[in-house]
From TrEMBL:
It comes from Lophiostoma macrostomum CBS 122681. The lineage of its organism: Eukaryota, Fungi, Dikarya, Ascomycota, Pezizomycotina. Keywords: Membrane, Transmembrane, Transmembrane helix. This is Rhodopsin domain-containing protein. Pfam families: Fung_rhodopsin. Residues 5-233 form the Rhodopsin domain.
Length: 244
């Protein structure tokens, strides 16, 4: 049967595909090539697709984290009285993610007036707010929420009445989220490299690595969200797996 988390997974997957397509268009216009080897027009096209990917990233991250947190509640705290720490932790994280990602989506969309100036830096009469706070806030929140999501089920996992070997396997499954945390950190590292003046920050070259680490982060989160059902699937289909 379908559960609420499944619908968030269904919504997240097309956005992951869209994010990859955005990256393809960035590469088409020279992402990964040093800035002094591309034309101004190519750079502006890169910035256009980079901003589009940045906007998509916010709802995508929210959907993936919702899918994980809703499964946490179902697995470990179906009622508030069963596991108060898990229930309050998951619900608080959901609320924080919704507020933060909604705010950040609009901030990313409109930090330049007119909006065209986000990618066309020669727009006459345009004005942009500093992009650095967006980068720092987004990176810090993503990393913080990833760590919270990673740590929330730790106590519950080791309280499960199952063999130690199975506990280790399940813990390793959750530990995939550690790689997502690393990807989030690397994304911050490469994003801060383009916070200098555009003429000297080599945006074109660093933009490729921002995209790669972004896709790694959301894809690994998606893998964790899908993998939470694996133990139940294996248990239900044990005979079929044995035959294979």
């Amino acid at each position: 049967m379908f559960e609420p988390a499944d619908y968030f997974i269904f919504l997240a997957f097309p956005l992951i595909v869209v994010e990859v397509v955005m990256g393809k268009y960035m590469v088409k216009w020279g992402a990964g090539v040093h800035q002094w080897q591309v034309t101004l027009g190519q750079l502006f096209n890169q910035l256009y697709w980079m901003n589009a990917a940045e906007v998509i990233y916010c709802p995508l991250s929210f959907l993936v984290k919702m899918a994980i947190l809703l499964q946490y509640i179902r697995l470990f705290a179906p009622r508030r009285q069963v596991h108060r720490l898990m229930w309050y932790g998951a619900v608080s994280t959901i609320i924080c993610c919704f507020v933060f990602y909604t705010m950040l989506t609009f901030w990313t969309l409109f930090y330049c007036q007119p909006r065209r100036m986000i990618w066309n830096k020669l727009t006459p009469g345009g004005k942009c707010h500093d992009h650095s706070p967006i980068v720092i806030a987004q990176g810090s929140f993503n990393m913080g929420s990833d760590i919270v999501i990673l740590l929330l089920p730790t106590k519950s996992l080791w309280e499960l009445q199952v063999p130690r070997g199975r506990k280790i396997v399940i813990t390793l499954l959750f530990a995939t989220g550690l790689v997502a945390c690393v990807a989030s950190v690397m994304r911050i590292v490469y994003t801060t490299k383009i916070e200098n003046i555009y003429t000297s920050a080599d945006v074109s070259h660093n933009g490729l690595f921002i995209g790669l680490w972004t896709e790694a982060e959301v894809a690994l989160g998606f893998v964790v969200a899908c993998s939470l059902c694996l133990p139940r699937l294996i248990q239900a289909k044990r005979k079929n797996f044995s035959r294979v």
